[in-house]
Specification:
249 residues; alpha/beta; Rossmann fold; OB fold (Dihydrolipoamide Acetyltransferase, E2P); 5-stranded antiparallel β-sheet; 17 strands; 33% helix
């Protein structure tokens, strides 16, 4: 049995979620509902739940305010929100589950299935640890990203990524250490997350870390020489934009 707490300031939304869980998720028992950060904090300490359904925006508070009260996170999080806002990018960065309101039953089932698998493996939620560190850190070089792979989940610093290569619907991360990680998401999804971290879509099949480009060699499109010696082609139509961004560093 999965024990859950709902932290939601809208009574109607909380009730709807309870009804969905009772009807479609037999493995979940809701052991409490809180409407504020303070109530949620006390309820979590008292009930020690397996998972928290956490609203991102609660009047003058946020779900992140609640997480910041814990030195150690011993539960899973499923964020809930009615808005496609800036916070979702941070959540996606660490591959944490979220549900957009109105909540879709199938998406709810998938999120619960993931919690069950994690509980069965008895593993710590490294994704959530990375998310909390990202939210607390003011140092971009310490920013971490969660990479779901065939072996489970890898957490790496963005500064450790040399470049990404597309492999059909998958993406290969090439790291400064020489390690390569095959992830289960396509390159376009990572482009959306990494562009603001000085990455550049050099080609339809590659995304490069401009901080790791040592030299540009001219040609029809030319290529970027990476810090490890790898050469990444720059497409002809991307050449001008690449040079503009690369030269201003």
């Amino acid at each position: 049995m999965i024990y859950a707490i709902i932290v939601e300031d809208e009574k109607r939304s909380a009730k709807l979620l309870v009804n969905l869980l009772e009807e479609y998720c037999a493995d979940v028992e809701v052991v409490g509902i809180a409407a504020t950060v303070a109530e949620g904090f006390q309820l979590i300490k008292k009930k020690a739940p397996d998972v928290i359904f956490l609203d991102i925006e609660m009047q003058k508070e946020t779900g992140f305010d609640l997480l910041n009260k814990f030195d150690e996170i011993k539960f899973e999080i499923i964020f809930t929100t009615a808005f496609e806002n800036y916070a979702l990018k941070a959540i996606k960065f660490c591959a944490i589950d979220y549900l957009l309101k109105p909540i879709d039953v199938d998406e709810l089932k998938v999120a619960i299935e993931k919690v069950i698998r994690i509980q069965q493996k008895n593993t710590l939620n490294k994704k959530l640890e990375a998310f909390i560190q990202n939210m607390r850190s003011n140092n971009p070089s310490q920013f971490q990203i969660a990479l779901p792979s065939t072996d489970g989940m890898s957490i790496v610093r963005v500064s450790e990524i040399l470049y990404l290569k597309s492999d059909r619907q998958y993406t290969i991360f090439c790291l400064t250490s020489g390690e390569k990680i095959l992830t289960s998401k396509n390159l376009g999804e990572y482009e959306e997350l990494l562009l603001e971290h000085n990455f550049f879509r050099a080609h339809h099949s590659s995304l490069i870390n401009l901080n790791e480009v040592k030299k540009y060699s001219r040609g029809e499109g030319g290529y970027a020489l990476m810090s490890n010696g790898d050469q990444i082609d720059i497409s002809k139509r991307k050449k001008e934009a690449f040079l503009k961004q690369f030269l201003k560093q």
